[in-house]
Amino acid sequence: MLKEHFKLISGTANKKLAEEVAKILKIPLTPVDVRKFNDGEIYCRILESVRGCDVYVIQPTSSDASHNLMELLIMVDALKRSSPDKITAVIPYYGYCRQDKKTKPREPITAKLVANMIETAGVDRVIMFDLHVAQVQGFFDIPSDNLDVIPIFADYIAGKKLKDIVIVSPDAGGAARARSFGKLLNAPIAIIDKRRPEQNVAQVENVIGDVKGKTAFLVDDIIDTAGSIAEAANILVKFGAKEVYALATHGVLSDSAIEKISKSSIKEAIVTNTINIPKDKMTSKLKIISIAPLLAETIKRTHEGLPMGVVYEEMYKKLEKKLK
Ligand code: R5P
Description:
By secondary structure, the protein is an alpha/beta fold. It is built from nine helices and 14 strands.
């Protein structure tokens, strides 16, 4: 049971996830009035006192990224002016994370700008999931958690009880992630040689590693246009993979991503609910795994000042048993 001075608030970006977390924690969501004026400006009012409370605001900055970010900032401002003890921004998907460095002169580093904005608004702590690059954590000068979903996905793969599997990274940047999966599942890894001739366009030419006759599990952080995983799946089949699954933490699913997944050689695409997936994007090939139990435990432990390491140790132990 959570202590008295605890509040859970949801923005409008992923209320479904917030409701799931609230249900697990057995507490009601604190009511808020969020509205949009005719000119697009956002209004927000917290409808209950939060004085002296430990407040958690759940709001992924997914599409529309700028709107959802602004809503989070306004909500935090409303809270800050209402004398809470602490404000934690729970940002299951951190939008703008991919703009983490300058690759050409005169470009912004938007991931850092967003971190500055969140801190300036008055957030004391952030909880995020699978950041595109872990060093974005260092863009914050307040405590930040970057939660790992690899054990959740590894458990899903292990549950399929398949022999001869290979973990595949769709690009060189994701090799470390594939290695972590491989280590947990005692499976070999392969890497796709992906190039980006321009933003949002993925071009693949080669596979490094042996995938012949194996079931391939593509692992990534984001499925955005689905270009990377669709192209990767097609080349994996060309190189002899028996079947291809794709797992990614964040289902951005922009443009014709769903169509690309449907038409590709992917047998099943699995994402989590860090981003709300509307009904019209659901297809038979898409599966959603909930992060709500892990998020609820994280929020509870943060509130109670308890470590998270033991939770992960438990997950690893469970996985080991499943693999025996
Ligand atoms: C890139 O570095 C990321 O890890 C993802 O592979 C990428 O964002 C996926 O984008 P898309 O689905 O548009 O190919």
